[in-house]
Design goal:
By secondary structure, the chain is an alpha/beta fold. Helix content is 32%, strand content 26%. The strands form 8 sheets. The chain has a 9-stranded mixed β-sheet with strand order 36-35-34-33-27-32-31-28-37. Strands 1, 2, 3, 6, 12, 13 and 14 form a 7-stranded mixed β-sheet that branches. Strands 17-18-16-15-19-20 form a 6-stranded mixed β-sheet, sandwiched between helices. Helix 17 packs parallel to helix 18, helix 19 packs across helix 21 and helix 21 packs across helix 24. The protein is elongated, with a radius of gyration of 32 Å.
């Protein structure tokens, strides 16, 4: 009996070392995964892989999962250069070969009949890394095996045959440094004709075509043709929006793909070649056995998973030479391991990471890579290598894993620069486009930060398929008209605070994001300080008892000092002082932060009484067309839903303070204090016995992701984070009520 109506797809991922069987839902999330390893078998004096056992193991796991889940499709992706031989009775002669077997006994002879590099774009590789070498070895050693062969199958298509009894070929595997494919004529190569084996390759089907069915329980499992693993990764990114990129697919091998590399620049002596993608298009490639290389080094020097790399040491006398694994562009050498005995484990680990990053950098240079770099596979878990590589390629965007997020920024003011900097700290994120109503500002912004897309209009940005998330960094009065267009485009949106000026607008945005079902956030950045998260949890858990009083303050002092620069010369500061330029004063600017800050911990505000003030700026009343008529100080008396009374103080006249947010919350069982200017990850608590002694104890708080990290993660995982437009709407309602209160000099209830 089925317990769910949702179908799962089955993906068999066969690597050279590890084999994974993943069960994936319709949202492309793996809900169940199993792992085993390849093993070697010797037959006819040839080392093969335990392909039969892999099939049996897979079917066993599939049958178990099918008991509680309906299954839809099955696809296999596998490492390259492996073949199986099937006889005329449709019986297996030889299971999938192991390319690390020494197939090159007749290498000199083989070179004479193998296609030239200009035909196959495949270098002569050691062992069995050319399928042509394997076939020639079998032909010379045991000609009867070739004569008895009806079909030559690649690894994914061997799995397909085992499940369906149908025989097919697939182009990305046939063209994977095999010597079997003529890239210029887009057909099987001259070698196939010379060996007389053209008819032994089954009909080529597309990688995504259904080849047959396999009845398992109540499920009719649709068997898809399958694909070479690195080409599968390359296909994913080609279909995911980025038009121009270099892919580094990692596992046992590190394989670089760059469509922009000219085939004429490929150097076969450097293990540079052309793959062929699933559409039949040649794809310039370079490779080295990076996974094997890395594993060798960490095992040699006994590096554990919890070793922390230490970069601050004198390593001028130490050098690691390539390489220890087969393949690649490098000459084999061994390091003097004795030298490394002088170093700490963390220092050695950093050298290993440095070495691997330089190997990758070398290959990127050989591939003439100037476009976006995407790393996929196990290397993305090594932050040290990622950081070094990002430094080495500082003129390029470097992304990691398949869950990358491309951001477009609307606006180029000071806030936009902050957004840009924050996004660049996130490894799987990149800012790739910018729009400002002033095109010259867009151009300068893009030039400064090496952003590839400059848009002439907002609609042009919103139509860009490469962009999945948008940062709205325009003045407050423009938030609604810009945000509503972003929302209706279907793209994820991070809007600067406040969400809107009027609550009728913010309510409309809340309604619209529900209709379009997209990720939405408001940039209440201070909500994500560690101490505030702890305060929120303490109040929610009732550790302070019933909240009685709240005291909160947000001060900055740029009107009295020049820590942030002389405001009289800074347009973005002048704008904050002028209603003509869209400012609603310190009430909406700093006040939006403070209100979110307080309500996140203490809950909703139901009543406000607000006073605002615009104080003289010395003897200067205006600069250029900036008239200083926007409020610069505000005091809010607030009644909270929990019954507590609170005071919120906001001012730009906080002499001696750069950005000070203070929050005190007093309950009948305890109290807490937060002072961000002193520490964002420390909270002062007065709880339990400390209440009797009137003693506050400082506590350090665990780190939390910032707004930008939450936004990117929300997009990549398709999970709605907070603060969302709902929280933004609530803040706007309070701000609007405060504004009305200050104008009318009366208490206003929050609707």
């Amino acid at each position: 009996m089925m317990v769910t109506s949702k179908k799962l797809n089955v993906v068999l991922d066969i690597g050279k070392t590890n084999v994974k069987l993943n069960f994936v839902n319709n949202d492309n999330k793996t809900v169940k995964s199993f792992t085993t390893q390849q093993k070697n078998i010797n037959k006819f004096g040839i080392k093969t892989l335990n392909s039969n056992l892999i099939v049996k193991w897979s079917l066993d796991k599939i049958q178990k999962i099918e008991k509680t889940n309906q299954l839809d499709k099955f696809v296999c992706t596998a490492h390259g250069t492996s073949i199986a031989l099937i006889d005329h009775n449709n019986e297996e002669i030889l299971a999938c070969t192991d390319y690390e077997f020494k197939f090159d006994q007749f290498f000199d002879e083989y070179q004479k009949i193998a296609p030239k590099f200009s035909e196959s774009f495949t270098p002569f590789l050691e062992g069995g890394l050319n399928i042509g070498t394997q076939l020639y070895y079998i032909y010379k050693k045991n000609p009867n095996l070739i004569l008895d062969t009806k079909y030559i199958l690649n690894y994914p298509q061997y799995i397909v045959w085992k499940l369906t009894n149908n025989f097919v070929s697939e182009i990305s595997y046939l063209g994977c440094h095999t010597h079997l494919w003529n890239y210029k004529k887009n057909k099987l190569s001259s070698l196939v004709n010379k060996l007389g084996i053209k008819k032994k390759f089954p009909q080529i089907k597309k990688a995504w075509e259904t080849v047959g069915q396999k009845k398992i329980g109540k499920s009719n499992l649709q068997i898809i043709n399958g694909v070479h693993d690195s080409n599968a990764s390359y296909l994913y990114f080609k279909n995911s929006g980025i038009k121009d990129f270099t892919l580094i697919s990692t596992g046992t091998w590190y394989i670089l793909f760059n469509q922009k590399t000219s085939l004429s620049n490929l150097d076969p002596s450097m293990d540079m070649l052309a793959n062929i993608d699933v559409f039949g298009k040649s794809t310039p490639t370079m490779r080295f056995m990076g996974g094997r290389e890395y594993d060798y080094l960490v095992k040699t020097f006994k590096i554990s998973n919890n070793t922390k790399p230490l970069s601050s040491f004198n390593y001028k006398d130490f050098l690691i030479y390539p390489s220890y694994a087969a393949g690649g562009a490098f000459i084999k050498k061994r390091i003097n391991t004795g030298l490394f005995k002088k170093l700490k484990k963390g220092e050695v680990y950093y050298l290993i990471c440095l070495y691997m990053a330089f190997l990758i950098n070398f290959c990127l240079n050989k591939m003439n890579s100037t476009n976006t770099i995407i790393l996929d596979g196990p290397i993305t878990k090594n932050n040290c290598i990622m950081k070094i590589l990002s430094t080495l390629r500082d003129k390029q965007i470097v992304l990691k894993n398949k869950k990358y997020v491309n951001i477009g920024i609307i606006g180029t003011g000071a806030v936009a620069h902050e957004h840009l900097r924050r996004y660049r700290d996130i490894n799987n994120c990149s800012v790739i486009g910018v729009f400002d109503i002033d095109y010259s500002k867009s151009s300068q912004f893009a030039k400064t930060y090496n952003i590839p897309y400059i848009f002439h209009s907002l609609s042009e940005l919103l139509q860009c398929a490469d962009i999945s998330g948008v940062s709205v960094a325009v003045p407050e009065k423009l938030h609604y008209e810009v945000a509503i267009q972003v929302v209706r485009s279907g793209k994820a949106i991070l809007c600067e605070k406040p969400l809107t000026i009027e609550s009728v607008e913010s309510a409309k945005l809340v309604e619209e994001v529900k209709n379009f079902n997209q990720i939405n956030m408001v940039n209440f950045s201070y909500r994500r300080i560690p101490a505030l998260k702890v305060a929120h949890d303490l109040v929610k858990e009732g550790k302070l008892g019933t909240i009685k009083h709240i005291d909160a303050t947000y001060l900055n002092g740029w009107l009295t000092h020049t820590v942030d620069g002389d405001w009289k010369t800074l347009p973005h500061q002048l704008r904050r002082l002028s209603t003509e330029h869209g400012s609603f004063g310190v009430l909406y600017d700093l006040g939006s932060h403070l209100i979110d800050f307080v309500t996140y911990v203490a809950g909703d505000i139901v009543k406000v009484h607000c006073e605002t003030k615009t104080l003289p700026k010395g003897d200067v009343e205006k600069i250029d067309d900036y008239i200083f008529d926007s409020n610069d100080s505000a005091i809010i008396i607030a009644e909270f839903k929990c019954g507590a009374l609170g005071s919120l103080n906001i001012s730009r006249w906080g002499t001696g303070h750069k950005r000070r947010i203070r929050l005190n919350i007093f309950g009948d069982n305890g109290a807490l204090e937060i002072e961000t200017e002193k520490s964002e990850d420390q909270i002062n608590l007065c709880l339990d016995n400390d209440v009797i002694n009137a003693q506050f104890i400082s506590t350090n708080c665990p780190s939390v992701p910032n707004i930008y990290q939450l936004f990117v993660k929300g997009i990549s995982d398709n999970v709605q984070p907070k603060p969302s437009f709902i929280e933004g709407h609530n803040v706007t309602k309070i701000l609007e009520s405060c504004y009305l209160s200050s104008k009318r000099n009366e208490t206003v209830e929050i609707n």
